[in-house]
TrEMBL record:
Name assigned to this protein: Ankyrin repeat-containing domain
Top-level taxonomy: Eukaryota, Metazoa, Ecdysozoa, Arthropoda, Hexapoda
InterPro entries xref list: Ankyrin_rpt-contain_sf (IPR036770), SecEffector_AnkRepeat (IPR052050)
Length: 255
């Protein structure tokens, strides 16, 4: 109020900050004095779990969109998600995806049980971020998954979600080994290989490019082909001397 009385300008960031911090009186004053607001006001209120500020904003014409539910869900705020949904705020697949990505089983359950759509992205995010509980719930409730679920888990080194997915019928292909190798994730690469996941020379090529000698050694020593050519050797000599020495000394590395 003091700043306003001095004639200082304000913008939509004023309402955003008030909503984000749950300062309802400040938000009321700003709105009554003509301060602009937009969808971000509702988004930050939802993310922070401030039902009162979200309710005030909505009841006084502040716009909202799918981002309100996405933020509530992604930050595990069931109360603001519930309010927004009951008041007709739109949601889409990202609501479930964001909940799964951040491990918020409570908002994931609420969204699904109240008809929020989901797709393979829910399982992919749960697997990639290591949230087995969300992955398990989604799978048991019929959420689709595909090759990318295992790929993302492998790439991020999430052994537990990779195990769960594979043991419960999630498909994988050589891309799982490729992603593990490219990201230097020896544990998920080992698990995938030991459980029958295909690999090819592309796996060792990606391990080479990643500069992870341990991953490359594991792959080569366990029968993964490695197609060395002069350009690859030059690349290794210039960038990864440890790999270059390994390539030159260990004949088995040639596959």
């Amino acid at each position: 109020m003091y700043a306003r009385n001095l004639g200082l300008e304000w913008g939509d960031h004023t309402c955003i900050l008030a909503a984000q911090n749950g300062h309802l009186n400040t938000l009321k004053y700003a709105h009554e004095q003509g301060c602009p607001w937009n969808e971000n006001t509702c988004k930050v209120a939802a993310a922070a779990g401030h039902v009162n500020t979200l309710k005030f904003a909505h009841e006084h014409g502040c716009p909202w969109d799918e981002g309100t539910c996405e933020n509530a869900s992604g930050f595990g705020q069931v109360d603001t998600l519930k309010y927004a949904h009951e008041q007709g705020c739109p949601w889409d697949e990202n609501t479930c995806k964001f909940a799964a990505a951040h491990g918020h089983i409570n908002t994931l359950k609420f969204a699904h049980e109240h008809g929020c759509p989901w797709n393979e992205g829910t399982c992919e995010m749960a697997a990639g971020m290591g949230h087995t509980n969300c992955l398990k719930y989604a799978h048991e409730q019929g959420c689709p998954w595909g090759l990318d679920t295992c790929k993302i888990a492998a790439a991020n080194g999430q052994l537990n979600t990779l195990k769960y997915a594979h043991e419960n019928g999630c498909p994988w292909d050589r891309g799982t080994c490729d992603m593990a190798a490219m990201s230097g994730q020896i544990n998920t690469l080992r698990y995938a290989h030991e459980n029958g996941c295909e690999w090819t020379a592309n796996t060792t090529e990606l391990a080479t490019l990643s500069g992870n000698l341990g991953v490359l050694q594991y792959a080569c020593q366990n029968g993964c082909p490695w197609n060395l050519d002069m350009s690859t050797l030059k690349f290794l000599n210039a960038t990864h001397t440890g790999m270059y020495r390994y390539a030159m000394v260990d004949e088995e590395a040639y596959g």
